Amino acid sequence: MTISYYIKWLWQAMSEVRARIFFRSFIGAAHIIVSLYFIWLSKHMVDVAIGSQQESIVGSVIQMAVCVLLQIALSSVGSRLDVKNSTTLRNGLRYRFFRHIMTSKWSGREGMHTGEMMNRLESDVYKVADTMSRTLPAVLISGFQFVVAFIFLGSFDWRLSVAMVVIMPMALLASKAYVKYTRRYNKDIREMDSRLSAYMQENIQNRTLISTMKYTPQTMDDFESMQSTLGDKILRYTDFSLFSRRMVQLGFALGYLVGFTWCIIGLREGSISFGVMTALLQLVAQVQRPIVEFTRQLPSFIHITTSLDRLADISNMPLELFDDEVRLSGNVGVRVKDVEFSYPSDGLVIKGLNCDIKPLSMNAVVGPTGIGKSSLVRLILALVEPQKGSIELYDDTQSVKVSSATRCNIAYVPQGNSLLSGTVRSNLLLANPNATDEQMREALHTAVADFVFDLREGLDTQCMEKGSGFSEGQAQRIAIARGLLRSGSVLLLDEPTASLDIETEKTLLQRIREYANNKTIIIITHSATTATKCENIISLD
Q1: Distance between CA atoms of 172 and 165, rounded to whole angstroms?
Q2: Are 198 and 115 in contact (CB under 8 A)?
Q3: Strands 490-494 vs 410-413: parallel, antiparallel or unpaired
Q4: Is 325 exposed, middle or buried (0-12, 13-18, 19+ CB in 10 A)?
Q5: Residue 224, C-beta contacts closer than 8 angstroms, at least 6 positions apart
Q6: CA distances from 124 to 90, 230, 301, 384 (A)
Q7: Would you say 330 and 397 are in contact if contact means Cβ atoms under 8 Å apart?
Q8: Angstrom distance (rounded) from CA 234 to CA 229
């Protein structure tokens, strides 16, 4: 990525908070002006106190008190703006990338682990938002502080101003060697941190399986090894950072020593007053502090490029096209014409498939594992596209190629446990937000999930992550009920009876046929019982 790309991207991303960030910089500049006026007042009061000027100090004391109050007020306003800008920018970026992930096109092989996506949505978004909302104003304020302090110091002694500007860059040049390593180590740290997040998420989700396989000790050893590697990288990064900071501190101390010596010589020779000395020593810090701030903030801008590169991977995920819904009004059938399909880097999964699934029919799609049954489901849902041939939905009046716009015609029940965290009610309303309790009761009865009403909380019973708290068969039946609540003339079920006993399977199929007598039903199945209950059998081989 080029510098111009980063600048353009950040400028667009800051659109919502851009004005507030510059206002924050203005608040900081006002704070600097008040601070410099406070220095001038302190110089003036010292001169009055030692008798070089004859006047009352009451007015100056009052002005200094006002300066202190103003600095406190401006600092408070600035801190609140920092938090507000950071929160607004972080929420906006997180929403943007979360939305991109949720609307991205499914490729059949996810290229990024969900734990990795989560890490980027949290860690990298935070890094970008914090840098732009806090670091950028800090750099602008430091630049303003350097210019006005340099001019103010030069008004007393321009030679000392030049000396301060020369000393600090020399120290910075001595620390320059570490910078080229910073980005590399930062990138390695972020990638390892993402791997740790993904490893933790996956193993926590599957801890029961891991425990039953007695693989927990090996899991912990692997985790400890990954953490150790991450720790080593962090220490190496810290070593470079500490070297840079010590060099900057050395430059700061040397600059102060030069300024102090300069003032002592001036006092001895009578070329400056005690008041001027007071001002000069404070101004030396005012000139040096912005340079130190630049070096402290420089790593943030280096780190942000790593985060932008990682977020760009999300931005580059192709989006699915969402057109206006195309809803067929009559009884709907599915026509598959000479379809061939394969996943990236895989061999052909489906070849030369032709079938015509008639409206209002009940159909079973059967075949050995890995033959392409679930792939056919994804093709009908237009989650993936065939390399050859076409799939169409049709009724008495029209025929349309399947796409994201035709999914409104399909009620889909995925394979296995697909419940989300929440309640049974919230899971059912996912399919139909306007469903009444009576409709939910009917769908649960059809799915042989009447057990829900025997639970103490009924529809408001909590579903934990991945349906935890329910057996596989119970979770599957609730998921089927959810699919039945979805409107659509085609009911598509992927292995709906895989976790059910034979009697429950028979009852379920009978009730589905009665409940969905106005729908075309397609069932992906390995079950001979299910297949024999269907009018048509589509065999993939």
Answers
A1: 11
A2: yes
A3: parallel
A4: exposed
A5: none
A6: 10, 17, 13, 30
A7: yes
A8: 9
| 461/294 Cα distance (integer angstroms) | 55
Question: Does the domain made of 82-315 have the CATH classification 1.20.1560.10?
Answer: yes
For residue 143, which phi and psi values (nearest 5 degrees)?
A: -60, -45
Taking CA atoms, 308 is separated from 8, 162, 193, in Å, by 12, 38, 16
- Residue 451 buriedness (CB in 10 A; 0-12 / 13-18 / 19+): middle
166 pLDDT above the threshold of 80: no
Residue listed under structure tokens 């009730």 = 511
Q: Yes or no: say if 205 and 168 are a contact pair by the CB < 8 Å rule.
A: no
The pLDDT > 90 percentage for the chain reads 14
Q: Which CATH number fits domain 333-539: 2.60.40.10, 3.40.640.10, 3.40.50.300, 3.40.30.10?
A: 3.40.50.300
Collect all residues with Cβ–Cβ distance below 8 Å to 102 and sequence separation of at least 6: none
Tens digits of per-residue pLDDT, 107-149? 665 667 777 788 888 888 888 888 888 888 888 888 888 888 8
Contact 496, 412 (CB under 8 A): no
> Cα–Cα distance between 354 and 343 in angstroms, integer?
19
Q: Are 342 and 532 in contact (CB under 8 A)?
A: no
Tens-digit pLDDT profile for residues 326-342: 888 888 999 999 988 88
Q: 255-264 burial by CB neighbour count: b if 16+ within 10 A, else e?
A: bbebbeebbe
Residues in the chain: 541
Tokens of 1: 């990525």
Domain ranges of the chain: 82-315, 333-539
Q: Is the pTM for the entire model greater than 0.90?
A: no
The terminus-to-terminus CA distance of the chain in angstroms comes to 48
* Across 223-244, average pLDDT: 81
- What are φ and ψ of residue 505, in 5° steps? -60, -45
Within 8 A by CB and 6+ apart from 95, the residues are none
Distance CA 337, CA 46 (A): 94
Which residue from 300, 304, 307, 253 is spatially nearest to 138, judged by alpha carbons?
300
Are the C-beta atoms of 458 and 486 separated by less than 8 Å? no
Which residues are registered as beta bridge partners of 333? 394
Query: What is the DSSP annotation of 64-109?
Result: HHHHHHHHHHHHHHHHHHHHHHHHHHHHHHHHHHHHHHHTBPP-SS
Q: Can you tell me the distance from the alpha carbon of 342 to that of 204, in angstroms, rounded to the nearest whole number?
A: 32
